[in-house]
Design a protein that fits this description.
18 strands; 58% strand; mainly beta
């Protein structure tokens, strides 16, 4: 059972260069897991997001976003510069750019099927967008109608977040990398098609290669979706992860929505070693009443953390009350 309070704008102030706003939230939870020793079931999380925006002398706009996650100094940050006619260039540290935005795009009433308190430790695609990278969101005027394009690059695609005037300092066996992501919403009414590729230079024997593709389709109050991803690590231990995800959501009315989703991940170790399939599923409902919403999820996982022991098969039930300020 979870109780969540999401605070709105807590503070706003103006400066010569632009404006800074602060939003935040807090979540208190009570979580039940069947067949698992959980210990203390009460939990709490807080978060703040600082957003700055302004305009340069030539009219180009800039933004800064800094996320302070629970019990962390900060969890993610980005600096964005929008150049008229070209698009937006973002310097990002862990904000979910590149192919990381395609980890699970299935329709849902609340959360991804693997993220409703399951703790499944599923591996989805991240690419260079899961760490520190520079992304170019191509201006829509340079593309056909309905097409969005994102190109991300990192000179060291190891996921490290480095302070200014500093370097990573270690060789993790990973070199440069890039993501290319395309989305198209103009093929048919209600349809969104997406695809992405990643290449990361590696010293582990073979370079890392990632691919993702899928689509969602909305007809009236029903939205369905399917996606496929494959992360070929090219290293000893795990050869690749191959994932299938699908989902369906139904908007009963403006306030009530239902969904069911599944995310299946095959871990292939190669060399005749045992391969494991991790599968999550979640039935969810969300009901909103103005600034308040009630959410519920009945979820399950098989082979959590890619372990076939009986203790890694369990169910989780979650209820959340969210208040928006």
């Amino acid at each position: 059972v979870g109780v969540s309070a999401l605070c709105g704008s807590l503070a706003a102030f103006s400066a010569q260069a632009g404006e800074m706003t602060v939003k935040g939230g807090a979540t208190a939870t009570y979580t039940t897991k069947e067949n698992v020793v959980t210990g203390q079931p009460l939990g709490m999380a807080t978060g703040l997001t600082f957003t700055g925006s302004g305009e340069l002398d030539n009219g180009n706009a800039f933004t800064v976003n800094i996320a302070h996650d629970d019990q962390n100094t900060w969890s993610a940050a980005d600096i964005g510069l929008t150049v008229a006619g070209l698009g937006t260039f973002t310097f990002d540290q862990g904000g979910g750019t590149g192919i990381d935005r395609l980890d699970d795009k299935m329709p849902t009433a609340w959360e991804e099927s693997f993220d409703a308190g399951l703790g499944s430790n599923i591996v989805t695609v991240a690419g260079v967008g899961g760490g520190t990278d520079i992304e170019w969101a191509v201006d829509s005027g340079m593309l056909p109608d309905g097409v969005s394009a994102y190109i991300s690059y990192s000179p060291e695609a190891d996921g490290a977040k480095v302070n200014d005037k500093a370097t990573g300092g270690t060789d993790n066996g990973v070199g440069y990398g890039y993501d290319i992501v395309l989305e198209h919403s103009g093929l048919a009414d209600g349809m969104n098609v997406f695809a992405g590729v990643t290449h990361i230079e590696s010293d582990f024997g073979n370079d890392q290669s990632i691919k993702a593709l899928g689509a969602t389709y909305a007809v009236g109050s029903v939205t369905i979706g399917y996606q496929y991803t494959k992360d070929e690590l090219g290293r000893v231990g795990v050869d690749f992860y191959e994932n299938h995800a699908y989902g369906i959501s139904f908007a009963v009315n403006d306030d009530l929505s239902l969904s069911y989703g599944v995310h299946e991940s095959d871990q292939n170790k190669g060399g005749g070693d045992t391969n494991v399939t991790l599968e999550t599923s979640s039935l969810q409902a969300a009901y909103s009443m103005g600034g308040m919403s009630i959410k519920a999820a009945m979820s399950s996982v098989d082979n959590a953390s890619y372990s076939a022991t009986a203790a890694n098969d369990y169910d989780v039930n979650t209820i959340a009350l969210s208040l928006a300020f």
